[in-house]
Amino acid sequence: MDNMKNPWLKLAVLLFMWVSLDCRLSFGADTISANQSLSGDQTIVSSGGNFVLGFFSPGNSSNYYIGIWYGKISEQTSVWVANRETPVRDIRSSELKISDGNLVLINGSGVEIWSTDIRTSNSSSVVAVLEDTGNLVLRDGPNSSAPLWQSIDHPTHTWLPGGKLSLNKRTNRSQLLTSWKNSEDPAPGLYSLELDPAGTNSYIIRWNRTRQYWSSGPWDEQSRIFRDVPEMRLNYIYNFSFHSNENESYFTYSLYTTETISRFIMDYSGQIKQLSWLESSRQWNLFWSQPRQQCQVYAFCGAFGSCTEGGLPFCSCLSGFHVKSETNWNLSDFSDGCERTTRLQCEEDPGRVTGKTDKFRESPNVRLPESARSMSAESMSECESSCLEYCNCTAYAYDSDGCRIWMTELLDLQQFSGDGSNGRSRTIYIRLAASEFPNSSNNNGIIIGAVAGSVGLVLCLVVFGILRWRRQRMINPKVEGSLLAFGYRDLQSATKNFSEKLGGGGFGSVFKGTLPDSSIIAVKQLESINQGEKQFRSEVSTIGTVQHVNLVRLRGFCSDGTRKLLVYDYMPNGSLDANLFHEENSKALAWKTRYQIALGTARGLTYLHEKCRDCIIHCDIKPENILLDAELCPKVADFGLAKIIGRDFSRVLTTMRGTRGYLAPEWISGVAITAKADVYSYGMMLFEIVSGRRNSEQCEEGKVRFFPTSVARVITEDGDVLSLLDPRLNGDAPVDELSRMCKVACWCVQDDETHRPSMGQVVQILEGVLDVNVPPIPRSLQVLADNSEHIIFFTESSSSQSSQTRSYTSNASSQAKSNTSSASS
Question: DSSP letters of 198-265?
Fold first, then answer.
């Protein structure tokens, strides 16, 4: 006992205990050899510290897995999992070790639950080494170069640089990149990415290893992109290459810079995603994803679930059904879908006449599921009866395509909003138990309501007919498609000879008018439009088909020689700039209203960019072109002669148009533009929505205040975002929404258009569907801030004829110089 007081003896005892406990990891920090094992919190780390191997538990799960994760980022992000389907609970008694030449995982009961499953002649010399690429390699000795087995050949949900997803030409089998089930369960999910077994050199995504719902299109060796992934033209992270020999075909990729931490994953959302790590914000930044829309993922909401774009949650159960697994649903795993709240009568009592008490509920504006059976029926009632003959018939549809019934669970239903999805939108009738409907005692009320509604409908039709006849009699417009072709004299009369001017812009002035039916209109008299008659009518006809709640409706037009006019719905609350840039405190727009205006405008632009038959680039987004209706709902206006490009093209060369202060850099440089030019203008407008002032203002000291630079600095330095808010609001705004809008604005005005989000992503961020990271400060904003005392900014229309004096410092950025030459021209 006295001997233990000797410090040297005590040290020796402690050293002996440590060696006896942890001798298993004495071989090397990145290696497991034949006489070692790994358990508990022990890990091995790759030589450069890039990756770590050990036990981990995802999210709030109580299960543990052997996995590899990044070693140099603060958020534990796994890239490979060994025992995906067989987790362990007790990591202290579980071991990862070399056994009989294999790397195996033994659980607490001594049962082998995972193995590399290879054969080797000299098992005693086998070692497992974690490389700095994230590849776990099994070798026959530490100095052996040829791998016996490597994890990069067995990817889970992450495709690492240097890895490959190949097609074995001998077996015609592809390697799979398979999603997790959800954020807390790495078990193989329903979605997988693979090289097309048909040999098209395309990547495809499948649901349940069977149903294909997305393809990259074939590889184009000349342009080095996949045909249906045009984003690859703008890719600045990955360098793809294609290889093919008699045994296999495969793609691999590398990173342009080793400093970049980027990953390519098959996400449990059913989308493939490219993400990059931003150390400044300590978050993963989503660069792109495919398919672009969540509801394009097949059967994302499971059986009897309906998918709706535009906000969370994407999934909901059909009427008469409820969520099957609340736990999985809360983890964004909707694959279990929904189940009936009440069993069908034919299931409860098969002895009764089949289906007599079951009924159908109408579900309009949906994308119909597949696997329908065509039936011969002359009417809807016959079609309904055909479905009732089978107890397992779940729904029917009757339209111009005839009668179709579904004998299975309903999968891949999408609910449309009805604002532009016509052509795909249909009505389906869902079979439910009779108890899901109101009692028959209410039938009298229903009948009375139906009669009253019919009478009201007839009266409305009569009144509508009279008004239509009166309008045609007095102004006699011709109908072209969904538009009215007005005569010039008729609009001259409606506007009282263009006497009440509402405003003006780069392409003309707008006047208030009243039609004979007392409806109020806004008439835009176009100026400096040198289009031919055929081109003008063609573009107007295209815009006339554009209908969205956040776009001003084009009602008609007039083309009388050189006099060309457009007729729009009248917006009683005027333009956003008139409501935003005023001094009266009592009239300042509330934050909630501003946020909804920003979101609604983004939805309107998303529709123009992504959901029309042709991509429409507005080219002049600014507060003056955002109009507000009676409820302050935003309407994007003045897009009647925007640039229209086909879906087969991603860029278009056009003459510069727009407004100084909102012009994207690519306008100035003369390159072909994309829809990202609108994104830049939208971002500049977001800054003004936040501050309630123009982005550039002359300060008392003679300097120019440039608000976007202030926002960028506060956001990147984690400053007080409330200091950026319009002072008239007295700080009355949720900090998270304010911060989100400021971050979005900074991302939208990035110098490189490939770094800007799409308008669809902007909508998802503002809705809270996507997280937004801290953006880098655009170089142009930094330069403009550093030289603000020498720069005068302008926000007047690009068509203004006024001359201004402009001076710039010699070291201004190329973007600032380009803006200067643009303003001078």
Answer: TSSS-EEEEETTTEEEEE---EETTTTEETT-GGGGG-SSEEEEEEE-SSEEEEEEEES-TT--EEEE
Alpha carbons 100 and 121: distance in angstroms, whole number:
9
Question: Residue 820 class from Cβ within 10 Å (0-12 exposed, 13-18 middle, 19+ buried)?
Answer: middle
Residues of the chain below pLDDT 50: 1-4, 11-28, 354-355, 420-421, 440-442, 469-470, 472-481, 585, 646-656, 787-825
For 607, which DSSP code? I
Alpha-carbon span 101 to 125, nearest angstrom: 8
What string of DSSP letters covers 687-699? HHHHHSS-SEEE-
Residue 665 CA to residue 680 CA, distance in Å, equals 9
Choice among 620, 638, 726, 751 that is catalytic: 620
Superfamily designation of domain 22-153: Bulb-type lectin domain (2.90.10.10)
Query: Comparing C-alpha atoms, which of 409, 407, 405 is closest to residue 397?
Result: 405
Helices (H), 407-496: 443-474, 488-494
CB 407 within 8 A of CB 393: yes
Q: Which CATH architecture has domain 473-503+510-569?
A: 2-Layer Sandwich (3.30)
Residues 181, 40: Cα–Cα separation, whole Å: 25
Cα–Cα distances (Å) from 267 to 157, 203, 231, 400, 508, in that order, read: 7, 15, 19, 38, 49
β-bridge pairing 173-174 and 164-168 = antiparallel
pLDDT of residue 650: 47
Q: Which of 381, 376, 407, 375 is nearest to 394 (CA)?
A: 407
With a CB cutoff of 8 Å and minimum separation 6, the contacts of 439 are none
What is the 3-state composition of the chain as percent helix, strand, coil, each rounded to the nearest 5?
Answer: 30, 30, 45
CB 636 within 8 A of CB 603: no
579-824 and 473-503+510-569 share a CATH fold: no
Which of 402, 378, 407, 381 has its CA nearest to residue 392? 407
H or E segment to which residue 292 belongs = none
The HSE-up count of residue 253 (CA atoms within 13 Å, CB side) is 21
Strand duo 177-182 + 173-174: pairing? unpaired
Tokens of 544: 């006339």
Confirm or deny that 635 is annotated as ligand binding. Answer: no
Those residues whose C-beta lies under 8 Å from the C-beta of residue 197, and which sit 6 or more positions away, are: 167, 172, 173, 174
Both tokens assigned to 203: 């990547």
Please tell me the distance from the alpha carbon of residue 708 to that of residue 721, in angstroms, as a whole number.
Answer: 13
Reported pTM: 0.58
Closest CA to 209 of 195, 191, 229: 191
Q: Residue 593 is encoded by which pair of tokens?
A: 């209203």
Is residue 712 within 8 Å of residue 746, measured between CB atoms? yes
> Does residue 22 have an active-site annotation?
no
The pLDDT, as a whole number, for residue 824 is 29
Q: How far apart are CA 365 and CA 426, in angstroms?
A: 5
CATH of 579-824, one of 1.10.510.10, 3.40.1280.10, 3.10.129.10, 1.10.10.10: 1.10.510.10
Domain ranges of the chain: 22-153, 158-292, 305-439, 473-503+510-569, 579-824
Cα–Cα distance for residue pair 394/428, rounded to 1 Å: 10
| CA–CA distances in Å: residue 474 to residues 470, 478, 493, 522 | 6, 12, 11, 19
3-state secondary structure of 30: coil
